[in-house]
Amino acid sequence: MFMNKENLKWYERKRLWCGLPWSFTKYGFSETQLFVETGLFTTNLFDTRLYRVTNTSISRSFIQKLFGLGTIHIDATDHDLNCIDLVNIKNSLKVKELLDKYVEEERIRNKVIVREYAGDLDNFDEHEETEL
Question: What whole-number distance in Å separates Cα of residue 44 and Cα of residue 36?
Fold first, then answer.
């Protein structure tokens, strides 16, 4: 694993539909970064700073509800992880709330605001983040 587990606020493997953690995909976040690690023999690590996260949401299928799982969808202004799903996460509501807390703290610490655009998308600027 690329990340040091002791520094993480949350860490978990992707789970199967029945809730068993038999997967080579790992998710986690620290106070400043979100990461996704995939693979067994060839390992890839994707990470982004938490202040780049713009939106989080949860979806839960019937099977996921039966096994206490959910999928956390994350939108970010990062080229590698601009849209990621953390699939079959145990206690997904609590994990989302914890992630949202650290995202907000990191935005405040880095003096970053996220603007929402309404109206003319033809003149839409790709950069949603603004540093104060």
Answer: 8
pTM of the model: 0.79
Tokens representing 15 are 């789970």
Q: Write the CB contacts of 125 (distance below 8 Å, at least 6 apart in sequence).
A: none
The answer to whether 33 touches 21, Cβ cutoff 8 Å, is no
Geometric angle at alpha carbon 34, from 33 and 38, rounded to 5°: 130
Where do we find the tokens 């003149």?
123
The β-bridge partners of 47 are 35
For residues 1 and 26, what is the distance between their CA atoms, to the nearest angstrom?
9
- Give the amino acid at 100: D
Q: Tens digits of per-residue pLDDT, 36-62?
A: 999 989 999 888 999 999 999 999 999
Mapped onto helix, strand or coil, the DSSP state of residue 68 is: coil
Give the ranges where the chain is alpha helix by DSSP (H).
62-66, 92-110
